[in-house]
Structure formats: structure tokens, C-alpha cells
């Protein structure tokens, strides 16, 4: 696992100070990080494909990041609809 990766705290939508805006801000920041990670990973996969190298491990990581991104989108939507 990437040492800089910080998992999302499940079930936390607000704080005692600042309400949902702080969590929404954290989620948006994580979304930006995820988008960057996904972009870098896709670039790395393209390079490996071009060299004929296996990319199975990268595909698994991409799937994991895409699932996390989808979960994050759902959480943000829940915040805005609450």
C-alpha cells in the first residue's frame, strides 16, 4: 500500500465544529488526490503496455482507486442531499 495513502473514514460526515463543510472539503481534497493517482497509474499502464510488460497488478490498483472514487462520489452526493 502506498505510504501516503490515507483511507477515508467511513461514516464520518460532519465534525463538531464546522458541520458537513469540513468533511465535504476533505472529500473534495481526497477526490483530487484520487484523480491524480488514477491519471498517473493510467500513464504507467500505457507505458508498460507499450513495452509489452504485464499490467495485472496495476489493473487491480486502478480498480481499487476507481471503487474508492465511486464511494467518495456517493458520499459527497449524500452530503449535498442531506
Secondary structure topology:
Blueprint: H1 20-50, H2 56-81
Tag the structure with descriptive keywords:
82 residues, elongated
Short note summarizing the structure:
The protein is mainly alpha-helical and 82 residues long. It has helices spanning 20-50, 56-81.
What would you say this structure looks like, in words?
The protein starts with 19 loop residues before the first helix and ends with a helix. The relative contact order is 0.16. The chain has 82 residues and is mainly α. The chain has one domain. The chain is built from two helices and no strands.
Rg value: 15 Å
Mean pLDDT: 81
N-to-C order of helices and strands: HH
**Major β-sheet, in short?**
none
Amino acid at each position: 500500500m502506498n505510504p501516503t495513502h490515507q483511507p477515508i473514514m467511513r461514516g464520518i460526515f460532519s465534525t463538531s465544529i464546522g458541520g458537513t463543510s469540513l468533511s465535504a472539503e476533505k472529500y473534495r481534497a481526497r477526490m483530487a488526490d484520487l484523480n491524480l493517482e488514477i491519471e498517473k497509474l493510467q500513464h504507467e499502464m500505457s507505458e508498460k503496455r507499450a513495452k509489452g510488460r504485464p499490467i495485472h497488478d496495476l489493473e487491480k490498483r486502478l480498480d481499487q482507486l476507481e471503487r474508492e472514487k465511486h464511494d467518495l462520489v456517493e458520499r459527497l452526493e449524500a452530503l449535498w442531499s442531506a
